[in-house]
Amino acid sequence: MLLVIDCGNTNIVFALYDGDMQVACWRISSDSRRSSDEYVVWLTQLMTLKNIKVSDVDGVVIASVVPDIQPKLVDLAQRAFDQQALCVGDADVDLGISVNIGQPEQAGADRLVNAVAAAAHHQLPAVIIDFGTATTLDLIGPHGSYEGGIIAPGVNLSVEALYMATARLPRIAVKPWRADMPVLGTDTVSAMHAGVFWGYVGMVEGLLGRLRQAHGAALPAIATGGLARLFAEHIDGSLTVDVDLTLKGLVRIYALNKS
Question: Any bridge partners for residue 12, and if so which?
Fold first, then answer.
């Protein structure tokens, strides 16, 4: 089995794949203070609960946007599974796609992995909308090339900033909203929820509309990330939700480099 690790700014996702089939999936908060020993104990205990042996893992692939955590995940692969991890971003790792931006090294590992997955599993060209710590929109060309993107603050970041920067506004929870929620709030909390929900819907619809004006009105959109399902169904323009897009891309990259 292949251990796939997607390390984001908010959470780390660990998934086990048997070929293209996901066998198990767990997530833990991204905390640079956590040691590799803690990852080893945490993950191997969860595997034991599912009757999965350490010896069943014969490969590890990692994509990380947190430099302080990546070495600990590499150490986890070596110590727990006796595997040398394949890390997206290393010079000898082939993604199988072109990165058509001025400074390719600045493209986040997760965004490139998403492009690989889109090329393997979805109609192209396409826009990938990732609802994570940041909200990103990336254009993937007709042959799977990464053509550039847009980065905006994520929903949770905006909610936290609103609370921290004001004296009288409460902290609100990011949760599923009703599609018929009024745009106009009648108290402080409902006004904040309307601003967060409809504000993000409007932002994504506006950015997606501009990308379609520039690159084709029929451009399909793929929604991924931890908050994708909260927003995708409320955004005009038909989005395909694929919350495992990054994991699928990592499986594809591992197969490409080990074939």
Answer: 7, 28
